Amino acid sequence: MNLEHIPAQTSVNTRRHDEAETRLQGHWLRLAQAVWILVAVLSFFLFVVSIPMFYAQIRSVCAGDTCNGVQISAEQAHALEAHGISLTGYALYSVSVAIISTLIWFSAGWLIFWRKSNYWIALLVALQLVTQGATNSTSALEHTSSVWQYPATLLDFLNTIILFMVFALFPNGRFVPKWTRWLVLVWVASNVLFYPNSPLTQFSWFPTFSFLLWISFMGMVVVAQIYRYHSVSTPVQRQQTKWVVFAFATIILSQLVLVVPMIFSPVLSQPGSLYTLISANIMIFVLLLGPVSVYIAIVRYRLYDIDVIIRRTLVYGTLTTILALVYFGLIIVLQILFQGLIGRTNDVAIVASTLIIAAIFQPLRHSIQQFIDRRFYRRKYDAAKTLAAFSATLRNEVDLSQLHEHLVATVTETMQPQHVSLWLSPPERTVKQQLVDNSDPLASSWQE
């Protein structure tokens, strides 16, 4: 038997080393699990306590500088009443949405804890999901003078710190590059220095400074994640990263889509407009992509091919945008062309535009799909060519050692496995050769 190994074995050893470093055992495991359960139970308790206060604040209308981000303005309250929606009905709806959203965040965190609690990075991610879910309503406690104000503020602070650490450590729980550990320390120190109601937060320049500081930190984390993805991550870790990046890209794109109408129609951003309330409720459900994607990335990533989802999203998202632009552009152009020639230009333009869109749908979809495959999936696109070239090699090559090298290279290039092993069966020996091998040296020399 001949067993060949390729250098990919080194990456296997690296992955095992990473898992050994991030795995918890013995007393450390039990201590980490106990701390996680304590914080999770506290978060859930604060969430339950905050529901009545959250409901009471939504039912009240903010006046002047007393708005705390939970209440609605007087103009929005009048707009709700104009549409037949009472403050009580809106408050009940908001509380129901908050409860559903929080339970999803909590469920994702508890499921990760249940399945992967022996890895400390999984514990950290699960803790972030739980604390993030609780802050959906505990923010109402931060603006009160009750005894729960300080625990709620501490929970919000903890969630901010853990969120940044998750961004810096995901997916393998190591600081890559190593300077990111100092970045986390500076982030913690800045949040302690600029805690809510700090004297520094009272200066007029603080909002701008805080925003620039946040952008700088997040930019450095993004740079570190790009470096990690291209230089350090294994194929499995890259798949996990893709799930999280896809979710956050969708969230950011959704936020931009909701902001665009406000740019072109300033009326939507007026105090009496309900658009801000509607968009805020939409974003609550869009944000649920976060816990779902993180759960899939850590626990269920092997069951779903994220590349297929990204590919179809790119294809059909681009196709929808182009078709919408072409459709409205054709309506405007055809109305101008038909004006004065026939009577009902609007109906004719709509019918003609619809027929043109139906005619170009399939060709445009195939063109966009080919472009995206070539531009973003070059490895898979080249894999077909590589396999075709290997088939041609099989027809022309007769040297077994050369075929062996070609086969290992092709599998490595197209499938990119962690480890490749090739077993070659020894050739069958004839009866005459076996008799010669079993005979004495004189018989062997006589046979020769």
Explain this structure:
- This protein has three domains: 236 residues, no CATH class; 63 residues, no CATH class; 68 residues, no CATH class.
- It is built from 17 helices and two strands.
- It is flat.
- α4 packs parallel to α11 and α9 packs antiparallel against α11.
- The protein is an all-alpha fold and 448 residues long.
Throw out a few tags for this protein.
single chain; 448 residues; mainly alpha; two-stranded antiparallel ribbon; 17 helices; disordered C terminus
What's this, in brief?
By secondary structure, the protein is mostly helical. It has helices at 8-22, 26-59, 74-82, 87-116, 120-142, 149-169, 180-193, 206-231, 235-264, 275-286, 289-300, 306-338, 345-376, 378-396, 400-415, 431-438, 441-447; strands at 2-4, 422-424.
